[in-house]
Structure formats: C-alpha cells, structure tokens
Amino acid sequence: MSNLEEFIKMNTRRTSVVHVGGFRPTGDPLATNFCLRPVALPDESWPLHEGEPLYFICQLNLTQAPFVPEILQDIAVITFFIKPELGLMSESNGNDWCVRAYKSLDGLEPMPMPEEMPEWERGFECQWKEVEDQPVYDDPELIVPEGFDADEIELDNVGMTKIGGYASNIQSEPWWGYRAHPAKPRYCFQIDSEEKVNLMWGDNGRIYIARGTTPGTEDEWFLEWQCY
Fold this sequence. Notes:
1 helix
C-alpha cells in the first residue's frame, strides 16, 4: 500500500446521507423528512424563541439509517428547529434553535403546528443512503502520518445532509475544533441547504451539530453555521 493509499484509508469513514424526495411518500409520521411535521412526546410543546414558534426544519429517524456513528447510537429520532432569521446564533441548544433527541420511538406522535406558524411551501419525506466520507483539509480529526505531505491532496468530502462522517466545513473548522469547552463537543451531523424545500443557510451554507462527550454532557448539543 502506498503512502497516499494509507492516508486515504486512515481518513475514510462511513456516513449516512439524506436524499430529499424523489420517491412516493409513505405518510409515516416517523419518517425522516424536511419541512413536513415533527413527532414529539405527548407532554411536549412546540419550541419557542422570545414567544414566537421556531421553524421546524427536519426530522431524522436514525433507526432507518443504514449506518449510525457511535456518538449517535443511543438516539432513535432527532428533530431540529431554528428561528426564521439566522444571523448570530447561540452556540448551545434551547434558545434560538432546538435539537430534540429521542432514545426510543415509543410514545412519539405528530405534534400539532402552532396556528401562527407559517408553513413551508414544500416538504418532503427522505431516504437514507450509506456512502464513504473523507475530511476537508482543516478538519481537526484529519490524520496525517508522520513525514507525509498532505498539502496538495484534496480528499472526497460529502457535502450533504448526513450523520457521521466528517463536517463539510466551508469557512473553517467549527468553533469546538479550536476553542476549549467543558463539554468537549464533537461533530455528529450536519444539515445542508436543500433546494427542494427552498431551504438556504445564507449563501448555500450548512448547519453543523455537535454533542457533548464529557460525563454528564451527553444531552447537550452545540451549533455552528457557515456559508460561502
């Protein structure tokens, strides 16, 4: 095996990507979807920011994904909400954006949308596909063997909505890659701009979500967003 082949092998991970639409929908409320309707537990209410409902963006049913990274293997469903205006976003969950993670499908049911909540023009069910993923040049988890020059090598990073793999950084590595935090957040999934539902994070940007990894912070979630 050449040094280049070894470098590529060391930096290749499995990932499950999300394909939006393109098939006959099932109507399953638990299906992975963009901009349709989220499920929740019966006692949960719609997340708010400053008294206004957050936009529902997507629901990821990890039990249907062909590959789930170790950091998410205790999670069954993730729902993601965010305020309408991006701008400066909170780093931690629960203010102007919201990740809800459910460890079981038990008890989950469609959550009624607030009357004052504008509906998306289009929403779609999604399908999963497993592919191989590689990091961009500034990924903090990029492995460079001693003595190997990786400066001119561009690996094949998958810039789609996905769980696992590597973040598809646009401007730089996410803030948790270069700034210390007690929870030691680690990237676990990203949400891409999705043209089919007219969803754009600025100029074709992406949302990156990390999860706390230190004891007691496993239910803490963190966000970074970047665009061109």
